[in-house]
Amino acid sequence: MHNLLEKVYQTNSLTKVEIIYLLENITPEDREILYSHALKTKQKYYGNKVFLRGLIEFSNICRQDCLYCGIRASNAKVERYRLTPGEILGCCDIGYDLGYRTFVLQSGEDLWYTAEILGALIQEIKKRYPEVAITLSIGERRVETYQSLFASGADRFLMRHETASKDLYEKLHPTMHFEDRQACLSTLKDIGYQVGAGFMVGLPGQTFADLAEDLRYLSEISPDMIGIGPFIPHSETPLGTEKGGTLEDTLVMVALARLLIPGSLIPATTALGTLNPQGRELALKAGANVLMPIITPTSVRKQYALYENKICGDDKPEDCRYCIERRIQAAGFEMDLGRGDSWQFSS
C-alpha cells in the first residue's frame, strides 16, 4: 500500500486496478498518509487558500425524478418555490457586500428560467459587478442554451456526472440518460466554461469499481471543479431507508481526486458538515479548497432539501460568512475572497 500512496503522490496517476486495491485495503494509518499527501499537493497548487462562493439556490422545482433527491419531481410533499430575477439580484447584492466575488446560481431543472430570462439576469449581475464570476448549476439544457448563457457572461458550470457507471446511473435516474450527461459536460467544456463534475459516495449498489471508474473519468476530462459528497438519504424518496455514505469514505475520495487531478478546485461540501460538525474542516485537510456559504433567502432555504437535516437552514447570510471565516482560520487556512479561478484555467 505504501508504494501505491507514494506513486499517486509522485505521479498523480493510478490505474483503475490500483485504485480498487487501495479502496479495498486502506487502513486508518494509510488514510492519514493519503490526506497528508493530498494536503501537500493542494498547497503546491493553491497554497493555504480557501476560496468562498456565495450559493443562491433559486428554485427547487425540478422536471427530473432522481431516486435519491428530495426535490425530485414526484415528491408531492415539497413546498416548491421560485425566486424572481429581482430576488436573485437582491441575493447577489447581499453577497457582494459580504465580499463574495463568485456567485453560484443553483436550481432544480426548472425550465421556467429560459435562456432569455437567465441571460438577462447574468448580464445584469455582470453590469453591476463586472469583476465577479458567475457559476451556473441548472442541469441539462440544450446546447444553444449553454452557448447563449456563456455569451451572456456565465463563467463556470457545475454538473456532477453523479456516477461513471452506466448501469448505476440509469437505475438512479429513471428520467435521464447516461450518455446525455457526459455529452453535456463535454459540450460545456468545448464552449469554454470552467466545468465542474463530481459524484456521490455510498450510493446503494455502488462498488469500489464504480468509484475507481469515477476517478478515472475525472482524470480523463480534467474538470476545473470536482464536487464529491456523501449520499444522505431523504425519507420522501425511494432510497429513504437505505444506508448513507460515510465521512471517512468521502474524505478518501476527496483526497484521491486532489492527487489525480491536482489543479482542480474541490469544495468541502455542506453534506460533509451535515454528517459531522467538523466534516468541512476535515475535507480541507484532505485536499479540498472551496467553501460555498449559502445566501439563499432564509424564507425558502429549508425547502431546497436535496437531503435531510442540512445544516445552516436558519443562518442569515452574514452569519454563514463569518462562521465560515472563523472555521477556515481555526483549521489553519486562509480565506480568499477573490474569483478563485482553477489552476489549469489560470495558467
Automatic annotation (TrEMBL):
Cofactor: how and how many bound: Binds 1 [4Fe-4S] cluster. The cluster is coordinated with 3 cysteines and an exchangeable S-adenosyl-L-methionine.
GO BP annotations, alphabetical order: sulfur compound biosynthetic process; water-soluble vitamin biosynthetic process
Keyword Disulfide bond recorded: no
Binding-site residues for S-adenosyl-L-methionine, renumbered to this chain: 162, 181
CDD domains: Radical_SAM (cd01335)
Binding annotation for [4Fe-4S] cluster: 62, 66, 69
Domain of life: Bacteria
Residue ranges annotated for the Radical SAM core domain, each copy included: 48-264
Claim: Metal-binding is one of the keywords in the record: yes
Residues noted as binding (3R)-3-methyl-D-ornithine in the record, renumbered to the chain: 137
Record GO terms (molecular function): 4 iron, 4 sulfur cluster binding; metal ion binding; transferase activity
Cofactor: [2Fe-2S] cluster; [4Fe-4S] cluster
Pfam families according to UniProt: Radical_SAM
Keyword vocabulary terms for this entry: 4Fe-4S, Iron, Iron-sulfur, Metal-binding, S-adenosyl-L-methionine
Protein name: [FeFe] hydrogenase H-cluster radical SAM maturase HydE
Organism field: Desulfosporosinus fructosivorans
